[in-house]
Amino acid sequence: MSRHATVREARPLRPAAGSSALRIDPSLCDGVGICAHLAPDLVSVDSWGYPILRAGVLGSASERRQADAAVAACPRRALRVSS
Amino acid sequence: MSVSLHLVTEPGRVGAADILATPAVLPRHGTESLTGVDVHDLAAHRAEFGLRRSHLGAAAASLLAAIEEVRLTGRGGGHFPTTAKWRSVMTHGAGGTVVANGAEGEPGSAKDAVLLQTRPHLVLDGLVSSMEVVGASDGVVWLHDGAWASARAVSRALAERAAAGAGDPQIRVLLAPDRYLSGEATGIIRTLEGGPTLPRYVEDPARPWSPGSRPVLVNNVETMARVGLLATVGAEEYLPTSLLTVVNATHRVVLEVGPGTTFGDVVARTWTSPDGRPPQAVLLGGYGGSWVSWDDLRAMPVDVAGLRAAGLSLGAGLVGPLPASACGLEESARLLRYLAGQSARQCGPCVFGLAAVSELADDLSAGRLAPSGRRRLGRFMGEIQGRGACRHPDGALRMLASALVVFGDDVRHHRRGRTCDAPTYAIMPLPGED
């Protein structure tokens, strides 16, 4: 079997802009912290280096780009953008 | 021990469909030996409550209506209507699982064990009825490892029902690891899906099962017993009572009270003060519940709606009076240490945050919390709130936050480097102590 033939979870269709939000599964997060660098307007870190997500929906195109970058970079796949 | 009361105080309705006839007395630890109880076998159960009516098909609507009529809610802080969960499961199709959750992770609480051991058929009537209503094919009684007396009682009751040709669907008894969080609903569902018994992050609380998995409904065994009551005697005879566990220095009392009963009544009749004085405060709901000063609580009725209006929850039904001579900060720090140790160790804010807060609470209790520590405590509590996959860290912080308010005078005293000179004794039972 090819090493690329792994099963991947289908990604949901991208929700409409203005109603989507960055979400985290805190049980998957290991506090790596890349998200806080890639999405400084959306993510800060707590006293132990774990991300605190700003509440609310993704408003601007810039926020949207930051969220997508953080989701893509998370090595634990703990982040996602959802409606 | 003279605990002979029945506190259903609704004029003219005593003897209607209440659940426990008398309070049960248990040791501080464990639920293997109950005294003061009458155990209902199937014959006694049917003599008291009658036959369960079937709620298959069109009859499902009548049970849903009855549950809504009596405003049955879950025992979490949210007080969500029981039928909201049911309806969500119903929209996801038949063939799922219903869980009667009796894991009772709260070390002080014993009401679920008393229910399972004395009224197993009421719980099973509720479980079977809820399975009928939501179209489930798999029934589970969820207990924790070591709850042998409860497991025996349920197994015996299931055998009795089979022998009597009750025609129940398949019901399994499952034993979870004996931990504080074993009764957490998402961890139960995760286990049924083949995973570990650990809480799971759920984005949509109305659909806590995995995509592609069959729906799972989890209700506490007390809720199941109430559904069982509604499925037998109906809403007209139903009493909106509460099951409580009152913690004493030497024993615990599980009792059923009506909504007219005040916490003053409950404590006066089930709690023996070790110092001859009324308690200074009561820990209400569970170890992740809230401290309430005795002055505030004494006259309050044991009524879910009234408590909710006051920002309080009955939670697991724990009533833990704190003697006037004890130190609330010391007790809170002790409980927080336990709760931090019971983290499922999955989420950073819980693993590291609760440990850090627990250390600071220990410092406060010992009278050595510096001003910088006070600032850190406030910052940490704000950072942790709402950031676990489950509500465990939130409960621990709720308990501590209420302690800082209710024992505010002690906080000021301890900050000046003094302690309470209170006798050091354990108030709430913890596993492996005493």
Describe this structure in words.
The complex is a heterodimer of chains A (83) and B (434). Chain A has a two-stranded antiparallel sheet with strand order 1-4. With 83 residues, chain A is an alpha+beta fold. The relative contact order of chain A is 0.28. In chain A, a hairpin with a 5-residue loop joins strand 2 and strand 3 (51-53). Helix content of chain A is 22%, strand content 17%. Chain A is globular, with a radius of gyration of 14 Å. Chain A has a domain at 29-82: 2-Layer Sandwich (Alpha-Beta Plaits), CATH 3.30.70.20. Chain B is an alpha/beta fold. Chain B folds into two domains: 34-237, NADH-ubiquinone oxidoreductase 51kDa subunit (Rossmann fold, 3-Layer(aba) Sandwich); 242-415, Ubiquitin-like (UB roll) (Roll), CATH 3.10.20. In chain B, 40% of the residues lie in helices and 12% in strands. Chain B contains 16 helices and ten strands. In chain B, the strands form two sheets. Chain B has a six-stranded mixed β-sheet. In chain B, strand 3 (138-144), helix 6 (148-163) and strand 4 form a beta-alpha-beta unit. In chain B, helix 5 packs across helix 8 and helix 12 (328-341) packs antiparallel against helix 13. Mean pLDDT of chain B is 91; it is low at 1-16. The interface between A and B is medium-sized, with 15 and 22 residues.
The helix/strand series of chain B, from N terminus to C terminus, equals EHHHEHHEHEHEHEEHEEHHEHHHHH
Instruction: Write the CATH homologous superfamily of the largest domain in chain B.
Output: NADH-ubiquinone oxidoreductase 51kDa subunit
Question: Termini distance of chain B?
Answer: 21 Å
The major sheet of chain A is characterized as: 2 strands, antiparallel
Low-confidence stretches of chain B: 1-16
Main beta sheet of chain B:
6 strands, mixed
Under CATH, the topology of one domain in chain A can be stated as Alpha-Beta Plaits
Rounded average pLDDT of chain A? 85
Number of distinct beta strands of chain B: 10
